[in-house]
Design brief:
Elements (H helix, E strand, L loop, with lengths): L2 H29 L4 H9 L2 H18 L4 H6 L2 H22 L19
Helix pairs in contact: 1-2, 1-3, 3-5
């Protein structure tokens, strides 16, 4: 597979993950008779989600974008560097501060069987 193919696959995977996360938040709020608007605020209120959206946007522009000013903007070295810095900040902050708070395993907010062999 070419580099564009891998970039495209990463972009699709990124958007898929964000879509699943938004879906799960909205379904949980719907079933709990809570505001769906509050679910959107909850979703977009995390720096992690915003950073993932930026990463998916840059990957999408690289893999699927046609030569236009929007593509040139998203692929400018200053923008890509800023997106890289934000996702590295998220990764480091999670690794140092948050990973001990939640241990993913089946039945703990994930579909059953997703984390077992």
């Amino acid at each position: 597979m070419s580099a564009k193919g891998w970039t495209g696959a990463a972009a699709v995977l990124g958007w898929f993950g964000l879509t699943v996360q938004l879906y799960l938040i909205l379904i949980a709020r719907w079933q709990g008779d809570a505001s769906l608007l509050g679910g959107l605020v909850n979703f977009f209120g995390f720096f992690t989600v915003l950073s993932n959206i930026l990463v998916a946007t840059v990957l999408t522009a690289d893999a699927f974008g046609r030569d236009a000013s929007a593509r040139r903007f998203w692929l400018a070295s200053s923008v890509v560097s800023g997106v890289l810095a934000s996702i590295l900040f998220v990764a480091i902050a999670y690794s140092l501060l948050l990973r001990h708070l939640w241990q993913p395993r089946a039945g703990n907010g994930l579909p059953t069987g997703c984390c077992t062999m």
